[in-house]
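Please discuss these two lines.
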Amino acid sequence: MNVDVFYDKKGLTEMIDAQYYLNICVDAQEHYERYKKEAEDSVVRTEFVTDKRYDLAPYWFERNTDCRGEITEEDTGVYYGFDQENRLRVTYCDFLIDGVGYTSYHPDHIITGLYVREKIDSIKIFYGKVGKPEHSVEYDVMPGLDLESTKDRYTIEEYIYEEERLIEIRNPKYVGKDHYQHIANTYLKYDESGELYQIYNGMNQMLYNNMNESQALTLRTALITEAVTESINLLKESAQKFSHDRLCYFGLYLSNDEFSGGSDPEYYSGLEQRRAKLLEDKKCEYTLWNDTQMQPSWFTGIENKGLLEKLRTLYVYWNLKGGGLYCEKERQDFWQEIAYSFNEQDLTGQVPVTDDFFVFVHWEGIELYNGELQRAIPEAKLSILQAKGLLP
């Protein structure tokens, strides 16, 4: 695929020439077999991987807080094809099911056509030198080559350098729009040796850090203590809201989004009177662990910005190390430890709680039968809860 270089910096923040990019997509569809053959015939080496491993966009994995897939001898159904110059030419199912990308290289641009079951899905063009693009345009036409429905389905990135280092990535389509601050700008920072050190989005939220395992462990240990202290303060605040009743538990709910900020975890209180009513109605013990049945009327989250920033730093490290599922498991273990330490605190005289008061952590899909939910509760408290028939 060869295209005329089209780029109007003055008009970029307003609108790209949608018809121009749609025409490229039409050409990509009409000449699918030729572009496919050109790319596949150039491949001299193939790599199978466990998950997405390469992307032509600068620092794609770092700024998306994601880890690279591993190279494997097994046919995973996800693979990359490289030419004799070690350039990426074929991308198979690395991000989109049944998606195949064919890439061609030209003096002033690189273009990839992404196809799904032989139908053009999108094209992406990097303008400028190989390895140092000036800007890119991605134009999405799925499910059809129709200008009216696709004219706004594009993404632009501008790459800004300082002394040969990429220091900012700007998406002019979203600059100045309040709801898109997080993707409008991305800022890259380097250490004294010139290595990439940190990346932040337009809301000054960390996306990447080069923290090592030892530093991460030190931070995790310190955060256990800080998070317990913060959780106790939130419990006291909750108790003031319910001065008419005693608290029988304090629940910490983990969302599926590790970067949701102050709402993760979400804290809520269980009231003694409500639990007594459920027991009177002979509700099963599983109901007692259900926040909707307990009808908590007050939710809160951590608002300490310093603590939130450190938590995000740790979450970023976990996500970069092992991906979303790895990070999710690390977060669960981390907050279970916090809840366990919280349960060991003597709250006598500090907060009006029942003698069987406990703290627990849960998340969507948690299994009660395997004891995962109870893992945050010390043996002494577990015995009390079991004796009262409050545990499954």
In short: Residues 136 and 187 are 17 Å apart (CA to CA).
